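Bumping with the actual sequence this time:
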Amino acid sequence: MSKIALKRLTYSDVTIIARHYYGRTEAGQTTAQKSIALPRKTFIDRFFPELPAAAVEQQALAQRQTPEGVRPRRPAFVFPMTVYGPGTTNPFDAATKVTKTQRNWRLNGFFRDPGNEGGNWEERDRFSGMLPPDLALAEEFVPENNIAIIEFFGRRVPTGGRIAFVCAPLPGDGALFAELHRLLGQRKMVERDRETLRYAFDRVGLPADHPLRQFLQEPEQGDTPGYEAEAAANGVAAARRRARGTRGRRGVTAQQHADWRSAAELVGTRGEEVAHYHLSRMDGVTDVVWASVQEDFYSPYDLRANRGGVEMKIEVKSTAYGFEEPINISIGELEEAARCEGPYELWRLYEVGAGRGTLRVCPDVQVFARGVLDALQPVDRLGVSVDKLSFSPQLIEFGPPVEIRIPEPEDDEEDDDDDELP
């Protein structure tokens, strides 16, 4: 699954570019870090919450494999990254890694302009406009003129990505920088989704053939066919067949299916987060519990609360697409709805993104659940077990749509003093 963020670059951040690192060190500024700082609130809490545990596992393995008396290497997760910009320069591929220092996470490694291979860093290249001619002005110049769009792929750890450098002084980047600056506000790094980027690109009239338009496409375009990918990961048979059909004879690889499943899981988590936020702020509702997170991942409902002295249970069904897409539900969830003594509501979250979604509520699915379970009894008597099924949301009655948006935090703090805005 991909995760997209905007990052305001600091003078230290731009030393991930080889020419700027060597330029800084030769100027006697020895604090260059060769990396981009990744604030925890976005990179870990939003994108890769399991990465710290993976780093601990990697560190333990390194300690076992390192000879006694030798310091083991720090955890590092290596992956390919496609580099875009500044301007309309052609993208190129580079190897990079995410590392954990004592306090921070960083995108680490050198980006070298392949069009400048064999030349020295002093020659003008695609990255030259990111710094002022006088390096004494760089601390203020860089964050006021440079923003990166960073996208990571992967579920538990980053497995790939792409990064675009947008530099205000370049004639082709000025308008886009201003729009991204508006989206960032005073924050240093903030999560954004593909639709927000599309709006920003369209707002400034970014040409249809501009390289940055590739950020509007899912990774490995053609291998992740939109709804089919989300639905196939959730087990919808017809969608799985369509997904296979879009790839012709190649079929669907295990890795592609894993990526689809992780994408669906992220949409589900985001939908539950929006639902939990909304439920916690409803009048007359108390004792809100995010059951699938706080109690049991396999709970037959996602949320539980008290309303007017009565316990209510809520199952959240989320999609990044439209309301009409099929709903996937487990037999365990249907059984819980059928036998539940209090209200068991089905909340449909659609057009789900980071911190947002549109909600429609079915206040009670008990009759529907009992009807489906009764219809499955002949199959059960044959010794055939059904664990999950899908159905059209048109089969049950939902209330009117309610748009929900979680307010964004005012700032995304980092630990490093180097990365504070001037």
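The tokens above came from a reply further down the thread. Residues 227-405 form a domain with the Trna Endonuclease; Chain: A, domain 1 fold (CATH 3.40.1350.10).
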